[in-house]
Amino acid sequence: MIRVVVVDDEPMVCAHLRTILGSAADIEVVAQAQDGAEAVEAVVRHRPRVVLMDLRMPGVDGLTAIERIAKLPEPPAVVALTTFDADTYVIRALRAGAAGFLVKSTPPEDLIGLVRVAADGHTVLSPEAAQRLVAMSADGRRRGDDARRKTDGLTERETDVLACLGEGLSNADIAARLHLAEATVKSYVSRMLVKLDCTNRTQAGLLAHEAGLVKR
C-alpha cells in the first residue's frame, strides 16, 4: 500500500486529490495538511511514501516544508504541485529535494500512475519539463559552469548513467540501454548522488541538463 500525504491550503483541492487517489486499490491518503508546518508533522506522524505538496501557501510555504522533510531520516518522495507547467519556484523546490512536480490539472488516471512512479523512487519530471525549467533559470550560465565542474569528476560510465537520469529513465531502462545489470545501475546512481551532493535522482537529472549532458 502506498501511503500518501496531501498538502494544499485549499480544502477543495485536498478533497479532490483524496477522492482521485482513494479510487486506486494500492494507494491510501493517510493525512492532509493545509500548510508546510502541518505537512512536516504529518510526515513524521504517518511516515508516508509520497507527499503531494502545494508550493504556494500562507504561513510555512511548500518550499520550506520540502527542505525540512528532506532532512528527516528516510524522507518520503515529495512531489511539488503547481498551477503552471514550468515555474521558477518549482526549480527551487526541485533543488531543495522534491522528487518532481505535477501540474494540478493532471488527469486523474495520470496522477495515480505518477504517484506510483514517485513511490518507486523514480523521477516525476519529463525531460521536456526539465529543459524548460533549466532554460527559465535566471542564473543558468553560472549554474551550467558549476554543473560541468561537478560532473568533470565522474567516470565515463557514470557520466552515461547521469545523462540517462536526465532523460528520466528508470534503472531498468538505463540497464537495457547501457547493457548493464540493473543492480549495477543502482550502485552507480547511489555513488553519483553522493559524489554530486544530490538528494535524489531528480536533482541529479537537472544537473545533467545544466551540464549539457542531455541531448535536446
UniProtKB/TrEMBL annotation:
Gene3D superfamilies for this protein: 3.40.50.2300
GO MF annotation: an example: DNA binding
Keywords: DNA-binding, Phosphoprotein, Transcription, Transcription regulation
UniProt domain Response regulatory: residue ranges: 3-119
Coiled-coil features, chain-numbered ranges: none
Superkingdom per UniProt: Bacteria
InterPro entries named in the record: CheY-like_superfamily (IPR011006), NreC/VraR/RcsB-like_REC (IPR058245), Sig_transdc_resp-reg_C-effctor (IPR016032), Sig_transdc_resp-reg_receiver (IPR001789), Tscrpt_reg_LuxR_C (IPR000792), WalR-like (IPR039420)
PANTHER family: TRANSCRIPTIONAL REGULATORY PROTEIN NARL-RELATED (PTHR43214:SF24), TWO-COMPONENT RESPONSE REGULATOR (PTHR43214)
Protein name: DNA-binding response regulator
Native species: Amycolatopsis thailandensis
